[in-house]
Amino acid sequence: MITLTHYLVLAALLFCIALVGIMRRKNLLMLFFATEIALNAVNIAFAAISKYYGDLTGQLFAFFIIAVAASEVAVGLGLLIIWYKRRGNIDLDSLQSMKG
Amino acid sequence: MVEAIAFYLFAFLTVAMFTITVMSKNALYAMSALAAGMIFISAFFFLLDADFLGVVQIIVYSGAVMAVYAFGMMFLDTTKDVKEKNPSKKIVFFLSGMVALLLVLIVLSPIVSDKVQALYPISHDIGNAEAVGIVLFTKYLVPFEVAAIMLLVAMIAGIILASKRMDESITLKIDQEIERSKKEQQ
Question: What's the whole-number mean pLDDT along residues A35-49?
């Protein structure tokens, strides 16, 4: 029998995989991939809660998250391409122009 | 029983695919693994009776988002391996391991809100897509329209950002060279 806890633990696990990606990646494109994983992990948790509490609101929030993720990709990739045209690489270390 | 088998199978596949995405040195492998993981995630939505969400997941993520990433990678050099220097792998894995442990503990702890009242109960008379539509176009109409405007803004921003000086910099010149070539033309 699969309970809500199963799904929530899976979502937490996927979120932490995304967290590892966010912390160890230096390439900005790979960082975007990791954020997509994090958003998907949250979507699983929303859908599971929606099923086990018998409430549709969770699914609707997942829809809005998908819309936000789609627009994030469009704008983020545009910025990434501009940055690559300027600097020739998308390394996170090259982003720091203000040496503090 | 079938549900349990499907859950564990897809859980294993999703975790494996996303681990490849996070660990792979090749950007193309990472993207392919991410696309596969997105499709496997839609299986969970079908298991959870959220049919419409599963379909949207396949169409939007595996279709649109992955296509945008694939087009974006044409601008970037993806054939060579991604070079990353990680000063301390230990800290990264320690921190994320701790967060994982903390999250699992939070999730496993008895949920206090056992008496949650469903605002929009799932009825079994109508299909999932129909039920989602009814709630989306009554209670969530304003957020829906705002999301539509947000997508429009993102589309225009993406077009303008990516097409900036597209006629000039196919050879990926840096700004100074572009300015110089402009002056030479004059």
Answer: 92
Q: Which fold has domain A27-93?
A: Helix Hairpins (1.10.287)
Q: Does B31 touch chain A (CB under 8 A)?
A: yes
The pTM for the full model equals: 0.82
The answer regarding whether domain B1-82 maps to CATH 1.20.120.1200 reads yes
CB crowding B52-88: b at 16 or more within 10 Å, else e: bbbebbbebbbeebbebbeebbebbebeeebeeeeee
pLDDT at A50 over 80: yes
Domain ranges of chain A: 27-93
Test A85 with B85 for CB contact under 8 angstroms.
Answer: no
Average pLDDT of the residues in A78-89 = 80
pLDDT (0 to 100) of residue A99: 67
Locate A84 and state its tokens.
């690559």
B30 and A26: CB-CB below 8 Å?
A: no
Task: Kindly state whether B130 is in contact with chain A, defined as any CB-CB distance less than 8 angstroms.
Answer: no
On chain A, the residues whose CB falls within 8 A of the CB of B119 are 55, 57
